[in-house]
Amino acid sequence: LSGLDPAQPYFQGTPIEVRLDKSDAEFVDVIHTDSAPTIPYLGFGMSPAIGHLDFYPNGGKQMPGCGKNPVSQIVDLDGIWEGTRDFVACNHLRSYKYYSDSIIYPDGFLGYACPSYDVFGTEDCFPCPKEGCPNMGHFADKFKEKIKNDFTKLYLNTGEAKDFALWRYKVIVTLSGRSKVRGYVNLALYGSGGNTRQHQIVKGTLQPDNTYTSFIDAEVNIGTVTKVKFLWNNNQINPTFPKLGAATITVQSGENG
After folding, report:
1. What are φ and ψ of residue 175, in 5° steps?
2. How much is the average pLDDT of 131-157?
3. Euclidean distance between the first and final Cα of the chain, in Å?
4. Which top class of enzyme applies to this chain (predicted)?
5. If one looks up domain 2-156 in CATH, what number appears?
6. Which position among 102, 143, 241, 242 has the lowest Cβ density within 10 Å, counted as fewest Cβ atoms?
């Protein structure tokens, strides 16, 4: 039984006979996309973990792409009617869109077990453990026999628009050069499964010999890494023409470590 952002008003905090609960089926997986408090945020979905696996994409409260202005939202890819409806309940309705996308991407939407979305942004919940990570959506039940805890909270990020699936990588870059500069570093990953766009991994002071760690939620499963493109810019003309390079770049897949 898959709960697509089960309702909060009149259900959250009620006994299990009233609301969705993991006792309702042999396996219950839940996608939380609109779990901000009803007042003042008008969240339609509930925040507590209530299934065997509870997924909180993008933290479960505010979905990327739902903050667009009304006009761009109404004339969305889905057409006028979908757009009007989405503007009213965009976060809430993302749950079924993620689910339908998950049918097309059986290897996508990996959920990382983590105590909170803030901790998901650190190295504490990466990569997947040896038994793997469950897939949010249609293929969540592949993980049914591996569930160990009473409740498992799982976090992941999604894209702003279709296609929503993203694949998580950790990148570690050690810079080389003679002097520190201010600017940013972008990386693009190339692999057997496809190539990513440029992702910014550090911005601010760039210090040679320093090591910088960041996560890339890539729009493609790159497979085996074949090449990494390194670009940096300091956004201003510098008469000393500073040069920066990468001494080493390490890319780690979240799926298999």
Report:
1. -85, 155
2. 94
3. 30
4. hydrolase
5. 3.40.50.1820
6. 241
Residue 238's pLDDT is what? 67
Beta strands 181-191 and 199-206: pairing type? Answer: antiparallel
Q: How far is CA 254 from CA 97, 133, 218, in A?
A: 23, 9, 11
Give the DSSP H or E segment for 82. helix 80-104
Q: What is the DSSP letter of 139?
A: T
Q: Where are the alpha helices (DSSP H) in 122-242?
A: none
Q: What pLDDT sits at residue 148?
A: 84
* pLDDT, tens digit (0-9, with 9 covering 90-100), for 37-69: 876 667 889 999 999 999 999 999 999 988 765
Structure-derived torsion over alpha carbons of residues 140, 141, 146, 147, reported in degrees to the nearest 10: 80
User: Is 0.85 surpassed by the pTM of this model?
Assistant: yes
Mean pLDDT of 142-168: 93
Cα R_g (the chain), whole angstroms: 21
**Domains of the chain by residue range:** 2-156, 167-253
The encoded tokens of residue 134 equal 């469950």
Burial classification of residue 58, based on how many CB atoms lie within 10 Å of its CB (0-12 exposed, 13-18 middle, 19 or more buried): buried
